[in-house]
Structures are given as C-alpha cells and as structure tokens.
Design a protein that fits this description.
204 residues, mainly alpha, two-stranded antiparallel sheet, elongated
Length: 204
C-alpha cells in the first residue's frame, strides 16, 4: 500500500508538471542575493555528484529532492534535457555559478508562479530572501537528521508491520460485510442490513 501511494503521488506530480506552462526567464538583473560567486561552483557532470544529503556541494538529484521535493526531482529524471537547458540559460542570463542556477531552477519547477514573483520583488524592491545555496536543515543538523531517519525507517518498516502482524494483520470488512450508511451491530460485528445474507436474529 505504501509503495502504491508513493508511485501514485510521484506520477500525479509529474503529470501536473507536464500540463503546466511557465516562463522561467522573465527579464531580471543580476542580484547579489540570488546570484553570487561562490565556493559551490562546480560543473554539471555526473562525476561530481556525491548523492549525499549531508554534502552542501552535492548537485545530484538527491539535492533537488531534499531541497524542493518530488516535482523538480521528476523533471531531472524524466526531462533531463529540458532541465539542463533551463540551468544553462539561467547561468548565461544572470552570470551565476552552476549551483545558484541549478537551485533557482529547482525552485522554479517546484513553484513557477512563486519563483517569478520572488524574482520580481528582488529586482524591483531589492528584497533579500536569503542565500539559495544555504545549507538545508538536514545539513545543519546532521546527527539529529541521521537519528531521526533511522527511527522513521525502523518504525514504519520494522515495528509497525510486525505489530500489525501480531494483531492479526489488516482484514478489511467491506468485502464480507458490505458498505452501507447505517450498519447495525450483530454478534459478528457491524453488518449491513441490505446484504442478502443478513440474519435479522443476529442483531444485538
């Protein structure tokens, strides 16, 4: 069930993305808060990817997933050419390093309208929304993040399935008892009176 839900959400997000349109490159002048020369300047080649969520220099799809979620992550996986062209175009227009351009495009694909509004406010009002390359919460608290991840995996993948199994497993009643608006209590639990096999004498 958990895997099916994950797959459904993933493909729903991908479908939503493919059906939306937006212009990621509204005219904007370079701004110090969104474009800067940084030590994070790395190439876009795969050899530089570490796939480590604790590595602030990592520009792999893992970084995209942890910072901006499943929608820009799906773009990187299934529309790689579109994503790369967007990053290179942003670098060309704003004179940014690779990390700044890539994380801006991650933000754009996650929320196109919000990203455009934010860029406009930076350009027109000089607002500072912080460093887009700043470490994530996971990177700021690595020990806590590792412990929390270990607990979550243990709880949902070990403890919970084991406990459910000890209690008899998941046994849905709808296939046997039916589904109705007003079930009645019987010696065998809640039943639907509309069922053909319903025994009136079993009611409590």
């Amino acid at each position: 069930i958990m895997h099916a839900s994950t797959i459904f959400v993933f493909f729903a997000a991908t479908t939503l993305l493919l059906s939306s349109e937006g212009n990621a490159f509204a005219p904007a002048s370079p701004h110090a808060a969104s474009c800067r020369s940084s030590a994070l300047t790395v190439s876009g080649n795969r050899e530089s990817w570490t796939f480590n969520p604790l590595d602030v220099n990592d520009l792999s799809p893992v970084d995209t997933l942890f910072r901006r979620g499943v929608i820009p992550f799906s773009v990187r996986l299934f529309q790689e050419q579109r994503y790369e062209e967007a990053v290179l175009e942003f670098m060309r227009k704003d004179g940014c390093d690779r990390a700044t351009a890539q994380r801006n495009m991650d933000a754009f694909f996650n929320d196109p309208s919000g990203w455009v509004v934010k860029r406009g406010r930076i350009r027109d009002l000089g607002e500072d929304f912080g460093d887009i390359n700043a470490p994530t919460g996971v990177q700021k608290r690595p020990v806590f993040s590792v412990l929390w991840a270990a607990f979550v995996f243990w709880f949902f993948l070990s403890f919970l399935p084991t406990r459910v199994g000890e209690l008899g497993g998941i046994q849905p009643s709808i296939p046997e008892n039916g589904m109705c608006k007003y079930p009645v209590r019987t010696v065998d639990g809640l039943k639907c009176r509309e069922r053909d096999a319903f025994d009136e004498f079993s009611m409590i």
